[in-house]
Amino acid sequence: MNDLFEVIHEDSDLLVVNKPAGLVCHPTKTDERSSLIGRVRLHLDNGEGRLVNRLDRETSGLVLIAKSSAVAGELGRLIESSAVQKKYSAIVHGFVADDEFTIDVPLGKDERSVVAIKDCVRPDGAAAQTKVRVVKQFVREGREFSLLSVEPFSGRKHQIRIHLAYVGHAIVGDKLYGADEQIYLRLVQGELSEIDRHRLMLNNHALHAGGLKFRWRDRDREFSAAPDAEFRNFANV
């Protein structure tokens, strides 16, 4: 662990890091440390690093960084062909009834929302499937929660967050797909209240990209990373 990020793997072609929750992938400020790609370039001491996959600001976990355009192209094609197996951990509200199931509903733009980036389940949307398995259930502060292992079979925007909310189990701390999207708007405007923070329960939503598995250049590659202390402490894992 350095002061930029946790390095999971590094060789001459590839860097794999555990992105902290709350860090954007691409820069919105001039400070190099304010984005993952900025930190990657500090780590590599050059401008060659290319993110192969991306995570939302509040989602923590594994990001692949190619050290050349050729490697970025190869790995990008693997991602696009769904040849990369991705596994996430999520903490959701409520006890999930079924031990294992697949959510198979299409996703598209939420035209009813005032939030421009918000998507939703809609019949004319793009196909999306998410496999869900219950890891454990627990009670905290008198409320029920489930820790899930989640595997998306497609890579739609906000797919896991939308699918879990759709089946009635929104991710803990999700400001956009939780109970009130106005919380997201207050966050963007810098007006998040103490009541909002209490309702959210966590600083960042409880979604962690903990596993990547794929075959590349005639070798099986598998990487894993643990979620941060806030996630682990909440779920007591």
Verbal overview:
It is a single chain. With 237 residues, this protein is an alpha+beta fold. Helices cover 21% and strands 33% of the residues. The two termini are 21 Å apart.
Shape: globular
* Cα end-to-end separation: 21 Å
What is the overall number of helices? Answer: 6
Instruction: Bin the helical content.
Output: 10-25%
Which range does the strand content fall in?
25-35%
The mean pLDDT is 94
Q: Which class of secondary structure composition applies to the elements?
A: alpha+beta
Number of strands: 12
Tell me about the largest β-sheet.
10 strands, mixed
User: Element order, helices and strands?
Assistant: EEHEEHEEEEEEHHHEEH
Features:
237 residues; alpha+beta; 10-stranded mixed sheet; two-stranded antiparallel sheet; 6 helices; 12 strands; globular
Could you outline the blueprint of secondary structure elements for this entry?
Blueprint: E1 6-10, E2 14-19, H1 36-44, E3 50-51, E4 60-66, H2 69-80, E5 85-93, E6 100-104, E7 107-109, E8 119-121, E9 129-140, E10 143-152, H3 159-166, H4 182-188, H5 194-200, E11 207-216, E12 219-224, H6 229-235
Parallel strand pairs: 4-11
Antiparallel strand pairs: 1-2, 2-4, 3-4, 5-10, 5-11, 6-9, 7-8, 9-10, 11-12
